[in-house]
Design brief:
Helices cover 37% and strands 17% of the residues. By secondary structure, it is α/β, with parallel strands linked by helices. A six-stranded mixed β-sheet has the order 1-2-3-4-6-5, sandwiched between helices.
């Protein structure tokens, strides 16, 4: 049996493509409470070339357009720039039939960006990546170092490894269970020296302990 090397992507996207679980996850990440009847509209882009977001879920909820990326390795410092391209594609898809040259302003949802980190390297519980950190030094351009960037995008990176951000994981049981599964896959893979065996043993463990059942 060949192992799907993107097994994390598959589990994550399959699990949180359920609108009810996605609503619960968003509330946990954002520290907000939304009624269970608030609709969730999933609008994930398919086959986004060059961005390589195979494990993304984008959706609209409560007037917000949220892009959620699950990241398994070292966080890419260019993530804010990549997400700028992504949100542009989303907006192009959303308003393609509207007249951009109309005298009437086009209303668009409020954007939010999350990256969920569960890689093996040490990483803070949460941090912010900013597009402006990639800009050239203002002083090199003859500008004041205190100048406010005229274009910005902020990405909130949250560490979802088992034992991290317990408050968030308590608010979203399935996220905690997903983190437990990934921790077991990593542990058993290290023990057996084989990813396929690691996945098999992790699934057995989770089945015995009613995790993701």
């Amino acid at each position: 049996m060949s192992v799907n090397r993107t097994y994390k992507d598959s589990v994550f996207t399959a699990l949180f493509s359920n609108p009810d679980l996605l609503r619960e996850l968003y509330c946990a990440l954002g520290g907000v409470t939304l009624p269970p009847d608030v609709p969730v509209s999933i609008n994930t882009l398919e086959k986004v070339l060059y961005l390589d977001f195979n494990n993304d879920i984008s959706f609209e909820i409560g007037g917000k357009m949220v892009v959620l990326i699950e990241h398994q390795s070292t966080i890419n410092p260019n993530m804010a720039l990549r997400l700028l391209f992504y949100i542009t594609r989303l907006l192009e898809k959303r308003i393609k039939s509207r007249n951009l040259y109309s005298r009437k302003a086009i209303s668009i949802p409020w954007p939010e960006f999350f990256v969920l980190y569960n890689g093996p390297e040490q990483y803070p519980d949460d941090t912010i990546l900013r597009l402006s950190s990639l800009f050239k030094n203002p002083e090199e351009l003859g500008l004041s170092e205190k100048i406010h960037p005229l274009l910005e995008l902020e990405v909130k990176v949250i560490n979802i490894n088992e034992g991290r951000n317990n408050k968030i994981q308590k608010c979203c049981t399935k996220l905690a269970e997903y983190s437990a599964l990934m921790a077991k896959v990593r542990s058993y893979t290290n023990e057996f020296g084989n990813l396929e065996e690691g996945i098999k043993e992790a699934i057995k463990y989770c089945s015995r302990h009613d995790i993701l059942i």
